[in-house]
Amino acid sequence: MNLWVKILLGVAGLAGAIYLYYTEVKPVVIFGLRPEYAHAIPFQKVPEGLTSLKAESCGQCHREIYDEWKTSIHAQAYEDPFFQAYWKKDKNIWVCLNCHTPLENQQPTLVKDIPRGRVEKATQEPNPHFDADLRNESITCAACHVRDGVILGPFDDSAAPHPTKFDPSFRNAQFCSRCHNVVSGPAQFYNVGPCGTYAEYEGKYFMQERGFICQSCHMPEVDRPVAENGPIRRGRRHLWRGGHDPDMVKRAVAIQVKADPPAPKPGEQVTVTLSLMNAGAGHKIPTGDPDRHFTVEFTVQDSNRQVLAEKSHTMGRWIMWQPAIVELYDNRLLPLASRDYQFAYRMPEASKGLTLKTRVRYHILTDGQHEMLKTKYGLMADDPYAFTVYEREVPLNEMLAAALVDPLPEPPPMACASPTVSKG
Question: Which domain of life is it from (predicted)?
Answer without folding.
Answer: Bacteria
